[in-house]
Specification:
The complex is a heterotrimer of chains A (132), B (387) and C (346). Helices cover 8% and strands 44% of the residues of chain A. Chain A contains two helices and eight strands, in the order H-H-E-E-E-E-E-E-E-E. In chain A, strands 4-5-6-8-7 form a five-stranded mixed beta barrel. Chain A has a three-stranded antiparallel β-sheet with strand order 2-1-3. By secondary structure, chain B is α/β, with parallel strands linked by helices. Chain B is 37% helix and 18% strand. Chain B is globular and about 55 Å long. Chain C is of the alpha/beta class. Chain C starts with a strand and ends in a 7-residue tail after the last helix. In chain C, 34% of the residues lie in helices and 25% in strands. In chain C, the strands form three sheets. Chain C has a nine-stranded mixed β-sheet, sandwiched between helices. In chain C, strands 3-2-14 form a three-stranded mixed β-sheet. In chain C, strand 9 and strand 10 form a beta hairpin. The radius of gyration of chain C is 18 Å and the shape is globular. In chain C, helix 1 packs across helix 2, helix 3 runs parallel beside helix 4 and helix 6 crosses helix 7. The chains are: A mainly beta (132), B alpha/beta (387), C alpha/beta (346). Chains in contact: A-B, A-C.
Chain lengths: 132, 387, 346
């Protein structure tokens, strides 16, 4: 079960899609990286906020969930390719499997991701919805 | 660097081991390997053990101390390595390096996982630790779902079909039914796979390797000393390992494992062999799509043709290349930390001609391909008869 | 001049029909629809709560306002379904709109009117110069006991308003509140569902406060019902606001553009806010809007708002309320129970 600190330190990334960018090779990264794997010490990593727009790169409907996601199952999970380049893993909400196709445009939405039990913390962050 | 040979291997029966725990299983596998090598325990200089999630699955860390103790091997050094589902192969490689470098002479390598002491949900979460906890698992990803994302993309990019994937499961069950150590002893049909419950679309129950208890062990010695223990030493002619991003989404492509391509290139280089030289291969089919991608990454077919090759039976027993004669992870079972060592044991038996009903007719050179997580670690070993 | 610089709405994707709820409890569907004037209501997804809806509406408002998150000096979230009993919703919103850390934030609770009270607080802070912009939100995932009359209406939604002085799309000409201690509806901390006084929630509670606040504001502003083009009243159902308009001598046509309850139910703290947003979506520069909220317990906040020319300029940045209202998918009662986690074992 997740405690406060591990969830709290990810808030900028999970709420606001704040990642990083290497100014040297102009590569965007999400989640943020401390070192650019291409440029290494010649790289210059700066903060980069993503717009939350992207498209479906691959998707699956999860019928058998991990612990903590039982009530939400089944749910759509996808790899999203952000317009700025990086890819990430997120749930896709408000849709059925038949609505989802590789290449469809999506936009970020704000949802609950997990709860640490009935009395624990609620962890919020990004999910995606098909752009209408 | 010294040449290294495998002189003994041992397995437990894979499956649901209600009566035996972690220590009983690994001890049994170790005893069998030592007996197979005709080697007294007092000859062993060091132990390397691979297990993925003992902490989560049985609440036990410090497992190689436990194994050395349980096998009566104290006070030899006992070292644990962990690389998720590739833990067993990484332990093999650690043992190989110890012998090759001359640091140790006789080394026992073990791999083990006890998975049925906790609920399926807990196993799913524990195995999830092989991926990126903060950026994949946190979002609700599971291992089947990560491989499902690969499968969907493979289908999209190469026209691979669910039936082609299903053929891998059918073939692996056929082989497993001829392996007394395998979890599943029954053949299945394409229909069984296609009609099974969807776990994470497009992957169904029979596309997925099961939850398995099991242990495997191998004994390594310098090749020049091998004849002291056995008439049929098996030489490790390549041991290569590579890494990739922990999370699947960070990779340029979902339809290949760069770590597998990299490790196999190095391995072929070390062994001075090419893919067509391989007679028998144990590849990491944690999901059917993984076997299709594996045979592409290993160069057994062209990129994108893994589905076709499987469907056409070119990976079946005694075909173009016999893939997963043990039944693979799908048919033989996948006790995570044990799998890499089990793959070695299967190739050893094949090269010795001891694989019984599943014996490959011409088995001179064999390969193992063991993947950690969704491809962040890959280990490839190539084995050859030492005669 | 204090005004609305930007606003945003959010209504979840899922709906349940009143008919379906009636079927479950063996009630007469058409009589309930006729009685309450509510055909269906919004239902939040399993991963939605007051915080997530508040964030979605607030992000829409920030885009509509065309301001930087950092320029928001106060975030107040009014709700009676804050996800935590202790730990603010407002900090979650502030972080998600990029307003942190140089701001003040708090959660408000006053049954269904906490959002409009948040607007008043922002008005005070903006006019005093304490902050440049204040973000006032009304959001709820309203609870209704299974089988209770409230179950037909208690829904989910959020409205956000950014209050400031510059580039306002509408000017708030005045506000007036009417408050008494009237126990018409309540929920103790340990209770899962609210209790209510049945018919007592009508005349001494809703009507007394809505009518007196509206009258008080019109007297204060020296206007009559004929001077306003649109009216938004708190809308627990479709009947109450229509009756309140009748008492006040207001043409019920002025009520319809801001009356969302028939289509989405009662979004509690979101109700007056979403009603106002729907009116702003269609109102023309120069027109006047009277808004009166109602919160059980009880009180009403009334506002007189004048639409400005800027409303046309900013319209392209807007996600109209009706986009959310019309984008929907129906649940049956069983899935609704799952969505609302009404089974104790969930």
């Amino acid at each position: 079960m997740l405690g406060s600190p591990s969830s709290w330190r990810r808030i900028p990334e999970r709420y606001g899609l704040i990642g990083s960018r290497c100014e040297t090779c102009k590569t965007n990264y999400f989640p943020s990286r401390q070192i650019c794997p291409v440029c290494r010490r010649r790289g210059k990593i700066v903060e980069k906020a993503y717009t939350g727009k992207g498209k479906i790169y691959s998707f699956t409907k999860v019928n058998v969930p991990p612990a903590g996601f039982e009530i939400e199952a089944p749910y759509m999970l996808a790899i999203i390719e952000l317009d700025e380049g990086p890819k990430l893993t997120a749930q896709v909400v408000d849709c059925e499997e038949r609505d989802v196709k590789i290449g469809l445009p999506v936009r970020m939405v704000f949802r609950k991701i997990q709860e640490s039990g009935r009395e624990g913390l609620i962890h919020y962050g990004f999910k995606f919805a098909l752009s209408k | 660097m010294r040449k290294v040979a495998i002189v003994g291997v041992g397995l437990t029966k894979f499956g649901e081991s209600w009566h035996r725990g972690f220590r009983e299983m690994i001890t049994e596998a170790g005893i069998r390997a030592l007996a197979d090598a005709n080697m007294p325990g007092s000859d062993i200089d060091a132990l390397y053990g691979g297990t993925m999630a003992a902490g989560r699955l049985i609440g036990q860390e410090h497992i190689t101390a436990l194994i050395a103790d349980s096998m009566g091997l104290n006070p030899i050094p006992a070292t644990r390595v962990e690389a998720a589902c590739a833990s067993g192969s990484v332990a093999m490689r650690a043992g190989y390096m110890a012998v090759a470098s001359g640091i140790h002479d006789q080394v026992v390598v073990g791999g083990v996982e006890k998975m049925t002491d906790v609920s399926t949900g807990e196993v799913t979460s524990a195995l999830g630790g092989a991926g990126d906890q903060e950026w994949e698992l946190f979002m609700g990803a599971t291992f089947p779902s990560l491989y499902a994302l690969m499968a969907r993309r493979h289908m999209h990019d190469y026209g691979t079909t669910e039936e082609q994937m299903a053929h891998a499961a059918v073939k692996n069950h056929y082989n497993a039914a001829r392996n007394k150590y395998a979890q599943y002893q029954k053949e299945i049909t394409l229909d069984t796979v296609m009609k099974s419950k969807v776990i994470s679309s497009p992957l169904k129950m029979f596309d997925c390797s099961p939850i398995t208890d099991g242990a495997a062990a191998a004994v390594l010695v310098p090749l020049e000393k091998a004849r002291k223990y056995t008439d049929t030493p098996i030489e490790i002619v390549a041991s290569a390992q590579a890494s990739d991003t922990l999370s699947l989404h960070s990779r340029e492509s979902l339809t290949r494992l760069n770590a597998a391509i990299e490790a196999s290139k190095k391995a072929y280089g070390q062994a001075k062999l090419k893919p067509s030289d391989i007679d028998v291969a144990e590849v990491h089919d944690c999901f059917t799509i993984a076997e299709l991608i594996a045979i592409e990454d290993l160069g057994f077919c062209k990129k994108g043709e893994g589905g076709k090759m499987t469907e056409q039976g070119e990976t079946a027993l005694n075909s173009k290349i016999s893939v997963n004669t043990s039944g693979g992870l799908k048919g033989c079972g996948h006790p995570v930390g044990a799998t890499g060592v089990k793959q070695i044991a299967e190739i050893v038996w094949q090269l010795r001609g001891e694989a019984e009903k599943r014996q490959v007719k011409k088995a001179d050179i064999g390969l193992t391909h063991n993947v950690g997580g969704s491809g962040a670690t890959c280990v490839v070993h190539i084995l050859k008869r030492g005669d | 001049m204090i005004g609305i610089v930007g606003y945003g709405a959010y209504v979840p994707h899922y709906r349940i029909k009143a008919e379906e709820i009636a079927r479950t409890w063996g009630e007469d569907g058409w009589r309930i629809i006729k009685g309450l004037g509510v055909q269906e209501k919004s239902v939040p997804d399993l991963d939605e709560d007051t915080a997530t809806m508040a964030v979605e509406s607030a992000r829409n408002a920030v885009v509509h306002a065309g301001i930087k998150g950092k320029s928001i000096g106060a975030v107040f979230v009014g709700s009676e379904s804050h996800p935590y009993a202790v730990k603010p919703t407002a900090t979650i919103v502030a972080e998600a709109v990029g307003a942190t850390p140089h701001l003040t934030a708090a959660d408000f609770e006053f049954a269904c009117k906490a959002g409009t009270t948040a607007i008043q607080c922002c008005m005070g802070m903006v006019s005093s110069g304490m902050v440049e912009y204040g973000l006032a939100i009304g959001a709820d995932t309203a609870q209704g006991r299974p089988g209770d009359a409230l179950e037909y209406t208690a829904s989910a939604g959020a409205g956000s308003f950014i209050i400031g002085k510059k580039n306002a799309v509408a000017e708030i000409l005045g506000t007036y509140s009417y408050t008494t201690d009237t126990p018409d509806f309540w929920r103790r901390p340990s209770a899962d569902f609210p209790s209510h006084g049945g018919r007592f929630t009508g005349e001494p509670a809703y009507f007394k406060h809505v009518v007196n606040a509206s009258k008080g504001l019109m007297e204060k502003m020296k206007i009559g019902p004929e001077d306003v083009d649109y009216v938004v009243f708190h809308q627990p159902n479709a009947k109450f606001p229509r009756h309140a308009a009748k008492i006040l001598g207001i043409d019920s046509k002025k009520l319809e553009p801001g009356l969302l309850t028939p289509l989405i139910g009662n979004t509690y703290s979101g109700a007056s806010m979403l009603g106002l947003a729907a009116v702003l979506d269609v109102a023309k520069p120069g027109q006047h809007v009277l808004v009166t909220s109602f919160g059980s317990g009880a009180g009403s906040d009334s506002f007189l708002i004048k639409i400005k020319d800027e409303i046309e300029e900013k319209r392209s940045r807007l996600v109209p309320v009706m986009n959310y209202v019309n984008n929907k998918e129906y649940l049956d009662y069983a899935l609704y129970v799952k969505h609302r986690k009404k089974l104790k074992s969930l």
